[in-house]
Amino acid sequence: MVKRTRLVQGEKLRGSEKVRRIPIKVIPSEKIPRKPDWIRVRVPATPRIEKIKKILRARDLSSVCEEATCPNLPECFSHGTATFMIMGDICTRRCPFCDVAHGKPNILDSNEPKNLALAIAEMELDYVVVTSVDRDDLKDSGAGHFAECIDAIRQQTPNVRLEILVPDFRGRMEVAIERLSSSAPDIFNHNLETVPRLYKKARPGANYEWSLALLKRYKEKNPTIMTKSGLMLGLGESNEEIKSVLKDLLENQVDMVTLGQYLQPSKDHLAVEKFVHPSEFESLGSYAEQLGFKTVASGPMVRSSYHADLQAKFLDQ
Fold it and tell me: What broad class of enzyme is this (predicted)?
């Protein structure tokens, strides 16, 4: 196989091509392990799924549900909900747990904020999650585009509840916080993903302390806005490491937390080290609740934006 020396704009790299240049080599799995019964998805396809997909295609939009091969897609789409992914479907990072393609992204679509807002109105949603690929190629890492999307959604559907799931804005934290404070969501979410020891393996290009600081600094500037983060389990972390991260999150003023099972998208992605039993998720969830988080979602099928509307019910209280 001929090794690539330059990225071609708009070309998607997946699998072994995506993870070839990360610090810790990913050894391809001979086969993906069989999933235990408790994490198998059994929700049948419905006409609502096709309707949601048609709206996304008509508005030239992407959903992280599709791009990251989320196992909850049938359920969420069937209920008429979706997590929108802005700024294209090509990421500048090469995280080996994620199924989103890597490459040199296309230029931003100036019509995306308007199309996103119109799609949300057309879907008649009450709660919306907007996330993005990493855009290290942009001067503000895409914070301005996030803000434009928020403004367009607020104008089109002022009553919708809005959560943003943001990248780490590496090197542009203060600019991003300022921009996303003037155009603010209801919930500011940034995932730590894993424990510090596994960052080089799972989140090359990211930094644990930086991500914690982003959450803390945003909360300090916007004390009335809820902050949220999440971890995926099964990459080789210990329960003590998980508990330590939970303490770090709380100490850095994070209000909401999610814990879910990592699932290997392909043989070329990081292998699952462990399928965490539901009883362990329940125990860790109870621990997080005792620490004092406002809401905790902990279970094998939990994802950061899965049932996000239910997690945020306390906003109405």
Answer: transferase
